[in-house]
């Protein structure tokens, strides 16, 4: 038996400024201009920004007001999620031509395990290149890719040559690659954690690798061991083709605060309808209904009820949400309502990718 190490071959595909790129593709006059999807209302939040907008510092999750201040020429467009889902479906069909081990993270990104693939190709790098070419030919959009031995490194690598590029981190390159990396580029290390690490003298992967496990656990709790392992290239989570969500939900933020429950019920009807569509698409039902209420002072309240049977029908969802709304007096006027369904009935067995040794 060979003592040679075995590796998975993982690709992370990430569409480039997906929502904004779709809008620029469908509306030629938007091409080459700073575009923000969403964020057009006074309380709106940017869902996506074109690369032209990003040069001004506009980013997703930023308030529309701030985005407009940073980029006065910014063009706001309403999101068209049906269109994004349509194109996302075409992209996933391309993925499935190569492997069934596809783990979608959102409409615009996914992990693929191509260790064993349907085309019998030995090179994950060439597979990624072929997939990106197919995406461009069939949708007119560009994608970036990262290729490596696990999901963590592939995710980091996909951001390395964006937009419209790819990077392969071969097995023997993993440790040098991680050691040279700025700690803020580690996937999962957010701004707050990065600042804390900087304060502890951890600026690069090499700095992180030099810290003992005890030190990391002391300062970062359970996450400490996660950081200890990933900086050594250890991340064994397989690509999960049937990611089981813990909950499915829909919510709306209102232009004006609502104080009348009658108006809220009207909004809940639309939210329940949207939730039913999501449940239907994913063939999911659940037992626990949660009503989310965000008040005008930004305090958040949730109210839940668990039924003895599974539901996915909007009339039953709305009936329970209505009951939860009237469960107790509202504390203030309301700026957001949401309904989610949890305790779901999807219990598909996870498929585990087989590790084999191949050339990258």
**Number of separate structural domains:** 4
Mean pLDDT: 89
* CATH homologous superfamily (4th level) name of the largest domain: DNA polymerase, Y-family, little finger domain
CATH class category label of the largest domain? Alpha Beta
Count of individual helical segments: 13
CATH topology of the largest domain: the name is Dna Ligase, domain 1
Low-confidence stretches: 347-359
> Class by helix and strand content?
alpha+beta
Fold and architecture overview:
By secondary structure, this protein is an alpha+beta fold. The chain has four domains: 10-16 and 82-171, Reverse transcriptase/Diguanylate cyclase domain (Alpha-Beta Plaits), CATH 3.30.70; 18-79, MutS, DNA mismatch repair protein, domain I, CATH 3.40.1170.60; 173-230, DNA polymerase, domain 1; 247-344, DNA polymerase, Y-family, little finger domain (Dna Ligase, domain 1), CATH 3.30.1490.100. The chain has helices spanning 18-26, 51-54, 64-70, 81-98, 124-139, 151-158, 174-180, 191-199, 205-209, 213-220, 223-230, 261-282, 314-325; strands at 10-15, 35-38, 46-49, 75-77, 102-106, 109-113, 143-148, 166-168, 247-258, 286-295, 300-311, 334-344. A five-stranded mixed β-sheet has the order 5-6-1-7-8. Strands 9-12-10-11 form a four-stranded antiparallel β-sheet. A three-stranded mixed β-sheet has the order 3-2-4. A hairpin with a 7-residue loop joins β2 (35-38) and β3 (46-49). α4 (81-98) packs antiparallel against α5 (124-139). It is globular, with a radius of gyration of 23 Å.
Task: Please give a quick description of this structure.
The chain has 360 residues and is α+β, with helices and mostly antiparallel strands. The protein is built from 13 helices and twelve strands. The strands form three sheets. A five-stranded mixed sheet has the order 5-6-1-7-8. A four-stranded antiparallel sheet has the order 9-12-10-11. Strands 3-2-4 form a three-stranded mixed sheet.
């Amino acid at each position: 038996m060979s003592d040679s190490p075995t590796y998975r071959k993982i690709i992370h595909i990430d569409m480039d400024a997906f929502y904004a790129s779709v809008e620029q593709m469908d509306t030629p006059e938007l091409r080459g201009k700073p575009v923000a999807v969403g964020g057009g209302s006074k309380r709106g939040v940017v869902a996506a920004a074109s690369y032209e907008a990003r040069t001004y510092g506009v980013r997703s999750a930023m308030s529309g007001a701030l985005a407009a201040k940073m980029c006065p020429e910014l063009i706001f467009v309403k999101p068209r999620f049906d269109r994004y889902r349509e194109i996302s479906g075409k992209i996933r069909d391309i993925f499935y031509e190569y492997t069934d081990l596809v783990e979608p993270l959102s409409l615009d990104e996914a992990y693929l395990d191509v260790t064993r693939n349907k085309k019998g190709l030995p090179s994950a790098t060439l597979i990624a290149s072929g997939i990106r070419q197919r995406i461009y030919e069939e949708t007119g959009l560009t994608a970036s890719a990262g290729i490596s031995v696990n999901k963590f490194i592939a995710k980091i690598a996909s951001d390395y040559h964006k937009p419209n590029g790819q990077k392969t981190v071969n097995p023997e390159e993993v440790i040098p690659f991680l050691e040279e990396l700025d700690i803020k580029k580690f996937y999962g290390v957010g701004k707050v954690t990065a600042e804390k690490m900087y304060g502890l003298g951890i600026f690069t992967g090499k700095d992180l690798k030099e810290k003992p496990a005890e030190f990391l656990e002391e300062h970062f709790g359970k996450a400490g061991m996660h950081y200890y392992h990933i900086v050594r290239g250890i991340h064994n989570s397989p690509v999960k083709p049937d990611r089981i969500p813990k909950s499915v939900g829909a919510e709306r933020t209102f232009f004006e605060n609502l104080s009348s429950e009658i108006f809220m019920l009207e909004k809940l009807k639309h939210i329940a309808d949207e939730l039913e569509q999501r449940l239907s698409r994913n063939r999911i039902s659940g037992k626990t209904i949660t009503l989310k209420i965000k008040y005008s002072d930004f305090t958040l309240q949730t109210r839940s009820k668990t039924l003895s049977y599974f539901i996915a029908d909007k009339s039953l969802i709305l009936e329970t949400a209505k009951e939860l709304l009237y469960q107790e007096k509202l504390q203030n006027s309301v700026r957001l309502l949401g309904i989610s369904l949890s305790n779901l009935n999807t219990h598909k067995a996870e498929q585990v990718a087989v590790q084999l040794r191949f050339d990258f």
